[in-house]
Specification:
CATH superfamily of the largest domain in chain A: Thiamin diphosphate (ThDP)-binding fold, Pyr/PP domains
CATH topology of the largest domain in chain B: Rossmann fold
Strand order of the largest sheet of chain A: 3-2-4-5-7-6-13
Radius of gyration of chain A: 20 Å
Radius of gyration of chain B: 23 Å
Oligomer: heterodimer
Distance between the termini of chain B: 64 Å
Distance between the termini of chain A: 38 Å
Number of helices of chain B: 14
Number of domains of chain A: 2
Number of domains of chain B: 2
Order of helices and strands of chain A: EHEHHEHEHHEHEHEEEEEHEEHEHEHH
Structural class of chain B: alpha/beta
Largest sheet of chain B: 6 strands, parallel
Helix content of chain A: 25-40%
Helix content of chain B: 40-55%
Largest sheet of chain A: 7 strands, mixed
Chain lengths: 335, 368
C-alpha cells in the first residue's frame, strides 16, 4: 500500500467523524448532510457541529421526523448526482425506513443492471449504557450485512471512523456506518489529511500467537484491554477488527486462525443468527481442520436490552468475562 | 356520455372542448393513447399460452391518458418515477419499445438485462424508474426534486402512482417535504378507485385526496382522467408552474383500469366491480371519448394508418425480444455492487493507521 506521511494528532471518535464530514463537504459540493437536528449546536453528539455555519442550511438539512421519507429522499438525491449523508441519532428510529433501505436502495444498482446507482451514506448510532433500553440500543449490523447491495462498516477507532466515512461518502455504493455511542469520546491518532480506509480490509489490532480474537465495533476496545491483561498471564491474543462487515475480510481471520488454532468472536449483537456465527462459519469452512478447540462466541444474550443498571451490566460482556472465557479456552484440550 | 353516480369522482366527468389544444396536438395525443392501448393488448394476447413473458404484468388499459400526455410534455432531463403499472409511464418517457419487450421476455437486450421485468423496469438514459412497493418510488422522487433544485436545474421530478399509494404513511411525509422546500415535483395520482380489489370507501375516511394534499400545503387539482385534453392541459400547466419555481403540484386524475389488477386473466369473477360500473367506464373510455371529439370521419381517415404503424412497431419489438439471447450466468457479487471508486481515488490519500491506545475507558452517555 502506498502511504503518505502527514501530520497526525490525537482526536476523539466524534471529532474524527465531524472532520470527515467537513472535509467531504469541502472536497465535493454534492455532499449534503441530512437528519433530525443536524444543524444545532449540539450537532449529533458533536459530529455535525459547525457544519451549518460553514456550508449553509441547504447542505446541512434539519429533517422532519419522517425517517422513511428521509432515507428515500436521500436515495432520490443520490440518483440525481448528490452524495447525501443521512444521520440517525439513534439507529432504532431508522427502522421506519426499512422499505427504502431493503426494497429500493439496496437493489437499485442490481435492478437497473448496473446502469444506475445511489451513492449514499447512512450514519446510524447505537446507544449503550445509562439505561438506553430496548429502543435506543439496537445495532442490527448482522441484518444490514445480510442484505446484498449494501456495504456495512463498524468503525471502532477514530482513525477508522474518519477513513471509512470518507471512503463511503466519496464511494459509489449505499453504505451503512454503524457507530457506537460508547466510542464517541475515545481518542486515537488521526491524520489531518483526508484519507481512505478501504472496505473489506480488516486490521490486526494486536498480533499474538495463542488465540485469534475477532472483535466487532464497540467491543474492540474491551477486546484490546482483555488481550493486554491476558498477556500478563502469558496468553498472547491476536485481536482482529474486521472494520467492515460487508464486505468482510474472512481471509485475514482465517490466516490468523491458521496460526493460532483458536477462535473467539466478541460481537455487540445477539447470538442467535448473529454476525458472530458468520465469522465462525467462515473460519470453519476455510480452515476448520486447524482448530485446536471449539470456537467460542461472546455476544449479547438473545434478549432485548434492559434499562436497569444492574441488568445492563449483566447484559453487556466486560473485559473480565472475555478474559475468563479466553483463559478457559486455553486450558481446554484440543478437539 | 352517461353519468354514474356510485363512483365517487370529485372532478365529475367534465371534459374540455377540442379547440383547447391545436388539432395536431389532439391527433398526436390520440395516436399516443392508441399506441399504448395496442401495445398492452398485444402483450395480453401473447402472454398465454406462450408463457414466454414470465413476470407479473400490471396492464393499463383505460389508463392511457396520463402517459400519452406526458410523452409530449416531459424533457429528457426530467425524471419519471412510476408505480408497478409501468408500461404507460415507460412509454411516456419515450423509452424504446424493443427494450421494454425484451425485458418482459427476460432477455439480455432488455431495458435491465432481464433483472427487473415489468414492475421494476427502469431506463436510466431517459431518467425513467419504477418499482412495485406502493409509494416507494414516489418518496424517492422527492429527493430527486431536491437535487434538481439544489443544482438549480430547470427540470422536474414526476411521480405517477395510484390512489392506493396514498394509503401509505410515507406518501404524506413526501408531500410535506416537497411543500416545505417548494420542490420541483409533479405528483400524478391516477385514481382508479381500487387498490387491487379494495375500493377507496373501505380504506379511507376522507376520500378527497386532493383536499388532503391541500392540507399539507401542496397545490392540487382534480381532473377527469379519461379526457385526454383535460389531462394534457392540466399536466402542461403544472409542469410550467413547477419549472418556473412554483413548487410542487399534485394532480388527482380520475380514471379506471379496464383490465384485471395483474396479468391477462379476467379477475371479474371475484365480483369486486359491478357490471354497471364497468360498462360506464367502457362507454367513457379515453380513446372512445377523443374519437367522439375528433369525429367519425377523421377517425376513419386516420386510424387505419396509425394502427398499421403501431402494429409494425409491435411486431418488430416481439421479434427483437424473442430472437434476443437470455442473460449469461452471472457473477452475483458484480451484479450488486459498483466495483470502482473514481471520486474516492482522486480525492483521498492512503494512510496506514498507527496503534490504538487501549488504556482508555468507554464513553458512558448521559441521559440524552
Amino acid at each position: 500500500m502506498q502511504t503518505q506521511t502527514a501530520t497526525t494528532r490525537e482526536i476523539t471518535y466524534a471529532q474524527a467523524i465531524q472532520e470527515a464530514l467537513d472535509q467531504a463537504m469541502g472536497l465535493c459540493d454534492d455532499v449534503i448532510v441530512m437528519g433530525q437536528l443536524v444543524d444545532y449546536k449540539s450537532g449529533i453528539f458533536g459530529t455535525t457541529t459547525g457544519l451549518v455555519e460553514k456550508y449553509g442550511k441547504n447542505r446541512v438539512l434539519d429533517m422532519p421526523v419522517a425517517e422513511a421519507m428521509m432515507t428515500s429522499a436521500a436515495g432520490g438525491a443520490a440518483l440525481a448526482g448528490l452524495r447525501p449523508v443521512v444521520v440517525h441519532q439513534r439507529l432504532d428510529f431508522m427502522l421506519y425506513s426499512m422499505d427504502a433501505i431493503v426494497n429500493w436502495i439496496s437493489l437499485w444498482y442490481f435492478k437497473s443492471n448496473g446502469e444506475s446507482r445511489m451513492p449514499l451514506t447512512i450514519r446510524a448510532i447505537t446507544g449503550k449504557g445509562w439505561g438506553q433500553g430496548p429502543q435506543h440500543s439496537k445495532s442490527f449490523h448482522a441484518f444490514f450485512a445480510h442484505i446484498p447491495g449494501l456495504r456495512v462498516a463498524m468503525p471502532s477507532t477514530a482513525f477508522d471512523a474518519k477513513g471509512l466515512l470518507l471512503e463511503s461518502i466519496l464511494g459509489e455504493n449505499p453504505t451503512f456506518i454503524i457507530e457506537g455511542r460508547s466510542l464517541f469520546s475515545m481518542k486515537d491518532e488521526v491524520p489531518e489529511i483526508p484519507y481512505r480506509v478501504r472496505f473489506g480490509e480488516g486490521k490486526i489490532m494486536k498480533s499474538g500467537k495463542d488465540v485469534t480474537l475477532v472483535a466487532i465495533g464497540t467491543f474492540v476496545p474491551l477486546a484490546m484491554r482483555a488481550a493486554f491483561d491476558l498477556l500478563k498471564n502469558g496468553i498472547d491474543v491476536e485481536v482482529i477488527d474486521p472494520r467492515t462487515l460487508s464486505p468482510f475480510d474472512n481471509a485475514l481471520v482465517c490466516e490468523s486462525v491458521a496460526k493460532t488454532g483458536r477462535l473467539v468472536v466478541v460481537d455487540p449483537g445477539w447470538n442467535f443468527s448473529g454476525f458472530s456465527a458468520e465469522v465462525v462459519a467462515g473460519v470453519v469452512e476455510q480452515v476448520g481442520s486447524v482448530l485446536k478447540a471449539n470456537p467460542i462466541r461472546v455476544t449479547l444474550p438473545d434478549s432485548h436490552t434492559p434499562m436497569s443498571m444492574s441488568l445492563e451490566s449483566q447484559y453487556y460482556p466486560d473485559e473480565q468475562r472475555l478474559s475468563d472465557t479466553i483463559t478457559k479456552l486455553m486450558r481446554q484440550n484440543g478437539l | 356520455m352517461q353519468n354514474f353516480s356510485s363512483i365517487n369522482m370529485k372532478a365529475g366527468i367534465n371534459t374540455i372542448p377540442l379547440g383547447s389544444v391545436p388539432e395536431d396536438t389532439a391527433i398526436a395525443l390520440y395516436k399516443a393513447m392508441l399506441r399504448v392501448r395496442m401495445i398492452e393488448e398485444a402483450l395480453i394476447s401473447e402472454y398465454h399460452p406462450a408463457d414466454e413473458i414470465r413476470c407479473p404484468v400490471h396492464f393499463c388499459l383505460g389508463q392511457e391518458a396520463v402517459s400519452a400526455a406526458l410523452s409530449f410534455l416531459v424533457k429528457d432531463e426530467d425524471y419519471i418515477f412510476s408505480h408497478h403499472r409501468s408500461h404507460g409511464y415507460y412509454l411516456g418517457k419515450n423509452a424504446p419499445l424493443r427494450a421494454l419487450f425484451s425485458e418482459l421476455y427476460g432477455r439480455e437486450t432488455g431495458a435491465n438485462g432481464g433483472k427487473a421485468g415489468s414492475q421494476d423496469i427502469s431506463y436510466s438514459d431517459k431518467h425513467f424508474y419504477s418499482g412495485a412497493i406502493l409509494s416507494g418510488a414516489t418518496s424517492i422522487s422527492v429527493g430527486t426534486a431536491f437535487a434538481l433544485k439544489y443544482k438549480k436545474l430547470p427540470y422536474a421530478a414526476i411521480a405517477g402512482f395510484g390512489e392506493g399509494a396514498t394509503d401509505e404513511g410515507v406518501f404524506w411525509e413526501t408531500v410535506n417535504f416537497a411543500a416545505l422546500h417548494s420542490l420541483p415535483l409533479l405528483l400524478i395520482c391516477e385514481n382508479n378507485y381500487y387498490a387491487t380489489y379494495s375500493p377507496m370507501s373501505k380504506r379511507m375516511a376522507v376520500e378527497n385526496i386532493a383536499q388532503k394534499v391541500g392540507a399539507f400545503g401542496g397545490k392540487n387539482h382534480s381532473v377527469f382522467g379519461n379526457d385526454i385534453l383535460s389531462v394534457y392541459m392540466s399536466i402542461s400547466n403544472a409542469l410550467e408552474e413547477i419549472r418556473s419555481g412554483g413548487g410542487p403540484v399534485f394532480i388527482e386524475v380520475f380514471t379506471y383500469r379496464n383490465n384485471s389488477h395483474v396479468g391477462p386473466e379476467d379477475d371479474s369473477y371475484i365480483g369486486y366491480r359491478s357490471a354497471e360500473e364497468m360498462a360506464f367506464w367502457k362507454a367513457n373510455d379515453p380513446i372512445v371519448l377523443i374519437e367522439e371529439k375528433l369525429g367519425a370521419d377523421m377517425i376513419a381517415r386516420l386510424r387505419p394508418g396509425f394502427e398499421h404503424d403501431i402494429k409494425t412497431e409491435i411486431d418488430d419489438a416481439f421479434k427483437f425480444a424473442k430472437e434476443s439471447a437470455f442473460p449469461a450466468t452471472s457473477d452475483w457479487q458484480m451484479l450488486n455492487y459498483h466495483p470502482e471508486t473514481p471520486l474516492a481515488d482522486s480525492l483521498l490519500k492512503e494512510f496506514a493507521s498507527g496503534n490504538f491506545n487501549q488504556d482508555q475507558k468507554d464513553h458512558i452517555p448521559g441521559p440524552y
